[in-house]
């Protein structure tokens, strides 16, 4: 399958932290490669949500250096699934990490 579309990623950094051994600067390229592998292409918009007062500076700098938007939410504000992106959690492919 091949499809071209605007791709938006809403990323809950608390519930889905950067995996051990990965650099924050690898997030965009990893996601874009996964979309391409699945046959999707198009501009990718990534927004990372979380309590940015608890996010180390090197992670914030790594994300921002690759044009990942960073949105601050209060610690304990609630699960991201309650926000506008809750439908993404209903996709088995996304929950499995694209495997």
From TrEMBL:
The highest taxon in the source lineage is Eukaryota
Location of the NYN domain = 6-72
Instruction: List cellular component terms (GO).
Output: peroxisome
**GO BP:** regulation of gene expression
What InterPro entries does the entry give?
A: Marf1, NYN
Q: Name one GO molecular function term.
A: RNA nuclease activity
Identify this protein by name.
NYN domain-containing protein
């Amino acid at each position: 399958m091949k499809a071209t579309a605007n791709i938006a990623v809403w990323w809950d950094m608390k519930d889905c932290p950067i995996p051990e051994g990965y650099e924050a600067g690898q997030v965009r390229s990893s996601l874009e490669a996964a979309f391409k592998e699945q046959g999707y292409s198009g501009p990718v918009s990534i927004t990372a949500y979380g309590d940015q007062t608890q996010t180390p500076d090197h992670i914030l700098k790594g994300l921002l250096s690759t044009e990942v938007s960073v949105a601050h939410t209060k610690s304990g504000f609630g699960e991201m699934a309650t926000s506008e992106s809750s439908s993404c959690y209903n996709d088995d492919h996304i929950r499995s990490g694209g495997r």
